[in-house]
Each structure stands twice: as structure tokens, then as C-alpha cells.
Amino acid sequence: MINLSPFSFLSSIAKTEATDINNPINKTKIFLQQQISVSLLNLYRAYTYNLSIGCNQKPLSIVRNLITTTQKIFNQRKKILFYPDFPYRKATLYQICLFLGYDVTNNSKEKFDLVIKWQRYKTFFSEEPILSQLSKQNFDVINFHCKDVSKSLTNQLFDEAFGYSITVNPLTYTGKCVIKSNLNAQHDGRIISCPTDKIESEVVYQKLVENEIEEEKVLEYRVPIFRQKIPCVYIYIKKIKQKHNAFLVIPA
What is the pLDDT averaged over residues 118-145? Predict the structure, then answer.
């Protein structure tokens, strides 16, 4: 049964991603989403996101949360340009913007305070003329020089930074290791036993890190870096079956 109330329908539209094009209903929602002002869509998402993490269902708590969210939105009045792609709804960085009350746009013709290079699900990034122009206009474009997020390059940079390697040669290594696609966002990691009789193409082989903290759960640390600073560290707790693919996020 389809709920046709305006609030439920708007919620359904707001939760639809641009990649959800497998059926006509989602195509319709995406079309309608494109007709809604991005600021209005972000406003709706900011309130619903803050309500989902910041209060219980008691009326007084809801009212306080709505007031706090409104204050953040009107006190900040900041807008961030994500380009060339709009961030997906569950992206941590986008959720941070919603929590702080920042407006988000994908339109480079609007006025904005900060620019973030954002290309979804890609591994190798081509040059974006608009971002190059903004950089020449003294805009600080975060991720502007990021052109390669392949795991092979990540392994190389890890070796240089820490002085030891996380990769293994599956032909000579003895024990278990993790094999992953060299491409970004594939979530196809699996554990194999070494040595093997061949090396697969377009994959990397990494050491298996034992990070189990309790039955059926493992822990990971994610360290974001902005302008040479580490503002926080995220704690990720995952179910073991999700260890090398999709993850369960527990806010730190």
C-alpha cells in the first residue's frame, strides 16, 4: 500500500538516490527531486536527520531539537559547493553538513563559501575545468589535487608514510590475506589462504588485520584529514560478515 500523504511522499523523494533508477517509480521520484529547490531539499533533510539522531520521541525533546536545528541553520548561513557530483544522502561528509545546518549545492553559479571536489564511485578523476577556474580565483578547493584513489596507490603511500607494507605477495606469503578490487567502492573484499598458484589482475592483496572486539563484531578507526589537521577519529563497529564490504556505522 502506498502512503500518499504529502509528508510521506516528500520523505520518499528525499531518500531516493540518483542511482536508484531500477524502476519507474524511482525514476519519477528522481525527476521530482530535480524540480525541488536544492536548498529546500537540504532543509528538509537537515531537520529529519537531526531529529533522527538528536532526540527521543517525546514532544518536548522534539521541540527542543527543532529549535536547535533552526538556530544552527540560521546562525551558520554557510553554503558548500560539491562538484561535479552531489553527495549521496548517507555520505558522512553530507551528514555532517546536515548536522551543522550548512546548505549544500551542486550549482557552481550560486554563491558559496567552500568548494569540495566530489566524484561518486570513481577511482581515477579527470580534470574539471570549473574547479580549475575556481582554484585560480583563490577558492580553496578541497580534494582538488586528488586524481587517484586506487588501492594500489593507497598501498604505496601507506608504505611511504609508515615505513612498512600492508601488501603481500600471494605466491610466497603463508597464511590468510585479504583480496580486494583495485577500484574504489566495490565492497568485494574476501579472505583467502596463501600461497596461491596465480595472481589475479586488477586486485590488491593485503595483510589480514585481526580486529575482532567481541563475538561477531570488529572495530575500525577512520581518520579524516582536512588542511593537514585531524579534527576527529571515527569508530566503526562492523558485523564480521560485513568486515570487508558494507559496514555498520556506530557514531563515536
Answer: 91
